[in-house]
Amino acid sequence: MSSLKPIYPAFLLVCSFSLSVFGQWSAVDSGTTSNLNGAYLLDSGTGFVVGDTGTILKSTDSGSTWAPLASGTTTTLHSLYFFSPNEGVAVGDKGMILRTTDGGVGWQTVASGVTDALRSLSFSGATGICGGDSQTILYSTDSGASWQISQSGFFGGGFSGAQMLNASMGVVAGQNSIFQALYGNTTDGGASWSFLNFYFDGNEGGCNDVFFFDQTTGLVSGTVFDGRGALARTTDGGLNWSTTLYDQPIEGLAFPIDFSGFAVGSGGRIVHSTNRGITWADQTSGTSTNLHDIAFASDALTGIVVGDGGVILRTTDGGEPLPTPSPTPPEVTPTPTVTPTVSPTPTATPRPTPTPRSRPTPRPRPMPLR
């Protein structure tokens, strides 16, 4: 047994090192090998995923397990939005828009009026916007039951990112016809737009997703012309952008709470920001698969990521590694200390004071007779 004692602390240190290195993203079984392009997760624990060949998956346990839904199409789907566990909208290639009001049991086709691929979707209440190829933008005022065309038919470019900030203000992000990143905003619910083009630190490219905190401060993810990726941030409504470049494209963006945000991209990259996107730190995804979208519940802890080949990753702690435990030394049984027995100092017992014996009272002597 004594030979095992030196090994025990070393074993604990190895375990401690492992816990500190591996993050808390876990792969779950999607049941499909189709590429997955978009994800949405509600606080109720209901989640939906869309992908190639008309794939739609549903989860009712915050992404632990997934079941396929019959979409009624084999057309590639790119994005989705759900108002509740029952009501949602999905968009895809060839101008396809699908809508459900029964949790995905049935899907109805909604006329879009365009044939371009629709790639992004967002709502605030009943007001929504949808972005697509050829710089197409659609808008809806009835929770996606019908759509109007704001603009379409441009040569090249498109909008892969869209976000409604409130019922009137929204933003889109993508690329223009001459390979510049393109940002647009609306103040009338998507009916009309104004645009600004920019570069990723001097590089041509296009935006893949967008998230704004308010009218002035926001971020875009993107792909640079040479295959690198980018995260760019503005604090003046898109006039100026500060860019962080990556070795591969960055796609999906999510900020479930104001200061905590996530982005995913090619090569299994997941990055996390705790300061509104000013700086980013890598998390360990456990995969090298290209990742396309990320969705979180509003607690910023429970989230899902989707990617190529049916990959779905899940976290319940914001993707952070477990804290490193302090090594616990082996238990040592202490040797008992022998306390010497000390003989007590003898105490002299006082001798009892003798009680004087009573003496008989002398009897009077009789007087002699005379």
Model description:
With 370 residues, this protein is mostly beta strands. It is built from 1 helix and 28 strands. The strands form 7 sheets. Strands 1-28-27-26 form a 4-stranded antiparallel sheet, with no helix packed on it. A hairpin with a 7-residue loop joins β20 and β21 (242-246). It starts with 6 loop residues before the first helix and ends in a 55-residue tail after the last strand. The relative contact order is 0.13. Mean pLDDT is 87; it is low at 1-23 and 337-370.
Estimate the helix proportion, in percent. Answer: under 10%
Radius of gyration: 38 Å
Number of helices: 1
Order of strands, widest sheet: 1-28-27-26
How much of the sequence is in beta strands? 35-45%
Uncertain residue segments: 1-23, 337-370
Spell out the helices and strands N to C: HEEEEEEEEEEEEEEEEEEEEEEEEEEEE
Distance between the termini: 116 Å
